[in-house]
Amino acid sequence: MITSPSSLRRSERSRRATLDAALELCTERGYGRVTVEAIAARAGVSKKTIYRWWPSKGAVLLEAFAEVFVNATPFVDTGDIDADLRTHVTGAVKLLSTPPYGPAYAGILTELHHDDVLGRAVREDVVGPRFEAAVGRMRRAQEQGQIPAGADLPLAVEMIYGPVYYRLVLRKPPQDEETVAALVAHVLRSLRAVPADPAVDAPAATGG
């Protein structure tokens, strides 16, 4: 059966209404009290429609979050990796400290431990692409000589994101711009540290 343009428009309107309703309810009630039934009622769609597009409320909220998160956390390339990482991390922190996005994502991160499908979606739709984009931006900086050739870029990205996730999941106060700057500076300083030369540090051989 070929879908008509009018039905596609209706589907998009329903999809948008569902995502908006889920975010509104998350703000009003908190993630744990949001239900698919409530989302359907607020959006003016049936539960059947929601389950045709998403397997759970977590999946609905993940799609709503991911759309905004990607646009709010670009990986710009001004030629200055320090400034660009500060821009990126500051954007992520601001979004994650703003309702409903921060509470929604924190709820998703909690629920994924009990929902393998949601966990895979988080990795494939949010964490994986952003992680690869971060490594790619740092690799360009490496090619420009701003980061040493032997630096472990995936580990560096985990060092940058780790404190952000730590504060979100434990509901600690988010980083301010000064703290973000210190975090980025610390990670990049660790990458630029000159490793010890084994030949110099090794004890001199003694004849026997």
UniProtKB/TrEMBL annotation:
InterPro entries tied to this protein: Homeodomain-like_sf, HTH-type_TetR-like_transc_reg, HTH_TetR, Tet_transcr_reg_TetR-rel_C_sf, TetR_C
One family name in Pfam for this protein: TetR_C_11
Superkingdom to which the source organism belongs: Bacteria
Keywords: DNA-binding, Transcription, Transcription regulation
DNA-binding region extent: 35-54
Record's signal peptide: none
Keyword Transcription carried by entry: yes
Residues annotated as domain HTH tetR-type: 12-72
PANTHER family: HTH-TYPE TRANSCRIPTIONAL REGULATOR RUTR, TETR-FAMILY TRANSCRIPTIONAL REGULATOR
Name recorded for this polypeptide: TetR/AcrR family transcriptional regulator
Organism: Streptomyces argenteolus
